[in-house]
Amino acid sequence: MDGLSLTKEYIDLIKENPEKYYKDYIRTVEKVENSNAKYKGKPIPFLYQPMFFTEEDIETFHRIGDILISIANKVTNNYLESSQYRKKFKYPKLLEELILVDPGYDINIPIGRFDLFYGGGDKFKFIEVNTDGTSGMNEDNIFSNILLETKSMEKMKEKYQISYFELIDSWVEESLRIYSRFDKKVDNPNIAIVDFKESGITAEFETFKKAYIKKGYNAVIVDPRDLRYIDGKLYYEGMRIDLIYRRIVTVEFMEKSNEIPDLIKAYKDGTVCVIGSLRSQIMHNKIIFKILHDKDTLSFLSEEERKLIKKHVPITEEFGGDEKIFKKVLNNKDKYIIKPIDSFASKGVNAGRDFSFDEWKEILTNCWNKDYLFQEFIDPFTRPFIQFEDGKPKVRDFKLNIGVYMYNEKFAGVYTRISRENIIFGREGYFSIPNMLIKPKAF
User: Fold this and answer.
1) Domain count, the chain
2) Angle, to 10 degrees, between the axis of helix 3-16 and the axis of helix 18-33?
3) Could you tell me if residue 73 is inside a domain?
4) Are residues 259 and 343 in the same domain?
5) Cβ neighbourhood burial of 257 (10 Å; 0-12, 13-18, 19+)
6) Predicted confidence (pLDDT) per residue in 327-366, tens digit
7) Residue 35 pLDDT
8) What is the DSSP secondary-structure string of 113-180?
9) Is residue 434 within 8 Å of 156, Cβ to Cβ?
């Protein structure tokens, strides 16, 4: 039993009675539209089909996650200890200062999601590592619960044990465990979910806020510009803030740093627990894929860690300097993608094979010597998915982006996006697919 065979079994099930399942699909779409699975106020697109994972897949994700966290901790420690090593990251002075601040607890990446092109077992390539601003948990859980109630999944449950990966309450639990190790912790901390209001995913934040409140804590959603630092304590509208769940991506944190002096001062003084700390940016910045391949990085890693990098981390280099680099990327456009060193939601990411030679040349000219990277193009793994067109089922192959969540350095769940395009990790042009763990029933 594997994910692909289960997928084909599900598709065959739909084809056996398309009229029945089309009617159920229409009801399901209505449930999604009335749900809280929204981005910028709009429903997130999805399909009437889950992504099936087996226990073997989950064992693989545990193994990959453990190795990646070990690498991340060694790289972070080297960054903290070596001023020479820090130069590789080319961070501005303020960001370097903030990374060097002791966050008051003993974990470098409290929450993260590593994105993969995944084909099962040892067939995978990393796309990127997300730490600050990690998202998607709310939509996955909503879609999973809705799909588990469909007629198609009820039929599958006659044969299999099927469950989803709970990602909201489990994060609340893990964040509080991390806070329990904070060196200035208080009983019953007041909690703020913090992001700039123009950037935050409101629906997801509301879900986390409700989960903290249900657990017995005061919780608010806060724009960091509204925080005030008074007499060594951080406040929001008169409420002392003890724990911040940071959803601000670091690039925006730095761009607007002059607007949030109170938060920065409180962070530097260590008077508020910020989960995650600015140290998580070390693995989040896309230049990390270049740095992981550097000889001095490989020198302090284990053989198992070096093997993971050489086999599964795509070759990545800075796009600037020697004109030979420009010509290589230009003349081999189908072999490369170009991406900003630090961005989110796939802004500025382009694949050479999606453009004509002249279009590619214009893109490269605009990116040259402007903090961009070029990276080997990886063909994503695909899987068939069913769509309804005019009430009829149509099966198409979609490219997969599998995101593996890590909470408090442990596997927590999965997030899947699919697309027919080469760039499938943005906020548009993709479908969000609910993820299911499936096991044979014991009869």
Assistant:
1) 2
2) 110
3) yes
4) no
5) middle
6) 999 999 999 999 888 765 456 789 999 999 999 999 999 9
7) 82
8) EEEEEE-STT-EEEEEEE-TT---HHHHHHHHHHHHTSHHHHHHTTTEEEEE---SHHHHHHHHHHHT
9) no
Cα distance between residue 103 and residue 105, in whole Å: 6
Query: SS3 of 321, please?
Result: coil
If you search the block for the tokens 């230009």, which residue do you land on?
Answer: 330
- The C-alpha R_g of the chain, in whole angstroms, comes to 22
The DSSP call for residue 279 is: G
Is residue 50 within 8 A of residue 146, CB to CB? The reply is no
CA distances to 159, 309, 432 from 414, in Å = 23, 21, 11
Indicate if 256 and 280 belong to the same structural domain: yes
User: Is the distance from CB of 312 to CB of 60 less than 8 angstroms?
Assistant: no
* pLDDT at site 161: 96
User: Above 80 in pLDDT, residue 280?
Assistant: yes
The DSSP secondary-structure symbol of 380 reads P
Express each pLDDT in 296-308 by its tens digit: 999 999 999 999 9
User: Quick one: DSSP state of residue 46?
Assistant: B
Q: Measuring CA to CA, which residue among 243, 248, 195 is closest to residue 217?
A: 243
**CB-based contact 111:276 (threshold 8 Å):** yes
Residue pair 430/417 in contact (Cβ under 8 Å)? The answer is yes
Strands of the sheet with 228-230, listed across from one edge: 228-230, 233-236, 239-240
* DSSP assignment letter at 442: P
Burial class from Cβ neighbours inside 10 Å (0-12, 13-18, 19+) for residue 238 reads: exposed
- Beta-bridged to residue 194, according to DSSP, are 222, 246
Is 319 within 8 Å of 352 (Cβ atoms)? no
CATH number at residue 409: 3.40.50.1760
Q: Residues 414, 51: contact at Cβ < 8 Å?
A: yes
337 membership: H or E segment, kind and range? strand 336-340
Task: Report the greatest alpha carbon distance in the chain.
Answer: 69
List, in sequence order, every residue forming a beta bridge with 46; answer none if it has no partner: 432
Helix axes 93-100, 261-269, angle to 10 degrees: 40
